[in-house]
Amino acid sequence: MSDPAIEDMHTQFQHEPLFLEVVEALLDLDSGKPERDHHQARHQALGYIIEEGHLWRIADGKSTRTQARVECISQEEAVEMARDSHVKNGHWGCDLRKLQLMDRIFSLKLDKSIVTALLQCPQCKNFGSTHLHSLMYPITRRHPFELLVADYLALPKGKGRYHNTLLIMDVYSQYIWGFKLQVHGTTKTTIEGLDTIVHGFRAPETFMMDGGSHFDNGE
Fold this sequence. Notes:
Layout: H1 3-12, H2 17-26, H3 35-44, E1 48-51, E2 54-58, E3 69-72, H4 75-88, H5 94-102, E4 105-106, H6 110-119, H7 122-125, H8 129-136, E5 148-154, E6 164-170, E7 175-181, H9 187-200, E8 207-209
Parallel strand pairs: 3-4, 5-8
Antiparallel strand pairs: 1-2, 2-3, 5-6, 6-7
InterPro entries: Integrase_cat-core, RNaseH-like_sf, RNaseH_sf
GO molecular function: RNA binding
Keywords: RNA-binding
């Protein structure tokens, strides 16, 4: 392998001691190390290969992942990739983002990198701290009414002069209640819709909404 390719990997993993150790072991660049460290590095390098100037993690036959190999990247690169995936593939939470990335890359402390990317997302910040915290939780919920989420959907004015809809969804069951409105969404219409659900079923443990004026206002 050419020296520039080796230098590139050293630069890429300069803050990743484990990957550096694996690279040096695979390229036999650690011959000057103590015998104990030498054997430890060889053992650590099992399950890795270097091809086309990149370090790859190969399947060990035990993982449920379908990819034969995935590229190893630094934590800084993982944050950038998680941020890009979050923007392009939907502003979903940690679990779904991790599933998507694990089919493409292997990175140390991937959960931490994903959380960093989500917390830096300007669009998610606009929904407030409750929404940001919910992105850190597992995708599923344990039972109905553990979490209800709500938002308004504007529609072209139709029969009966209805042009707005309050949508409230139970995250566990994915069941959606819709309340058609002839007016724009307000605190009053939000409370009326939520009261209908509470009186017909039960009160939710958590009610999540964005920071829109129909939710966050003086009323």
